[in-house]
Amino acid sequence: DAGVIQSPRHEVTEMGQEVTLRCKPISGHNSLFWYRQTMMRGLELLIYFNNNVPIDDSGMPEDRFSAKMPNASFSTLKIQPSEPRDSAVYFCASSLAPLSGGAGTQYFGPGTRLLVL
Amino acid sequence: GENVEQHPSTLSVQEGDSAVIKCTYSDSASNYFPWYKQELGKRPQLIIDIRSNVGEKKDQRIAVTLNKTAKHFSLHITETQPEDSAVYFCAASIRLRHQFYFGTGTSLTVIP
Question: Hey, how many other C-beta atoms are within 10 angstroms of the C-beta on A104?
Fold first, then answer.
């Protein structure tokens, strides 16, 4: 298995530009998570999906951030317009939630390192 | 929601010594507790996990203990090696929910 795939791995953009981050979860996994990691704030959960449906987006910083999961094998996180304070590493993770309920082990992608100038 | 606190934030040990990282959680409904290791510039990777029906779990030099009454769990690394140097994150997950609540991380340095 290729694991969780993210693209791009690095993104440098100018303030005001639109940024789209992409994620392909592990095949068969039914939950997908978007995290942001910075030195100041640590690892923050932005949003997660279960069976392609957004369950909790309370971590999304503001309306400039949006996420979609059109099918079980693809998700996007979009920032429009981007700002310098959005600079961070964005991780996507996926898991297979057990039928008995609760959380499955999360496997992280390699991350996208975003720099907004 | 759940609140996970992790201590210490930094830890330095001599090679060969043991390292212990402690986490506390607030919600008694939490039932799954994974530990992740993140090397510099890399992704977090699961190293060990424990469910609430178990008090201790070992995997070679790594062990995790859980005290449900006190709502805390700990990561123990024995015979530390320089390659153990990394940031370690604990997490808790509440029964019937999918997300993890992560601690703030412990930066472990193993001095050769």
Answer: 16
What confidence tier does A1 reach under pLDDT thresholds 50, 70, 90? low
User: Which residues have a Cβ under 8 Å from the Cβ of B50 and sit 6 or more positions away?
Assistant: B32, B33, B56, B57, B64, B65, B66, B73
B89, β-bridge pairs = B36
| Least confidently predicted of A10-24, B49-63, B91-105 | B91-105
- The predicted model gives B33-40 an average pLDDT of 96
Q: Is the pLDDT of residue B3 over 70?
A: yes
User: Which uninterrupted H or E stretch holds A50?
Assistant: strand A42-50
Token pair of A103 as six digits:
């959380």
Contact call for A31 and B96, based on CB within 8 A: no
Query: How is the beta sheet containing A5-7 ordered, strand by strand?
Result: A5-7, A19-24, A74-79, A65-71
Distance CA(B12)–CA(B109), nearest Å, equals: 5
Residues in B lying within 8 Å of A, measured between beta carbons: 31-32, 34, 36, 42-46, 49, 89, 93-100, 102, 104-105
Let me know: does B24 contact B33? Beta carbons within 8 Å. no
* Beta carbons within 10 angstroms of residue A81's beta carbon: 14
pLDDT band (50, 70, 90) for residue A28: very high
Best mutation site among A43, A90, A94 for testing chain B: the one with the most B CBs within 10 Å? A43
Contacts of A23 in chain B (CB under 8 A): none
Per-residue model confidence as pLDDT tens digits over A82-117: 999 999 999 999 999 877 767 788 999 999 999 999
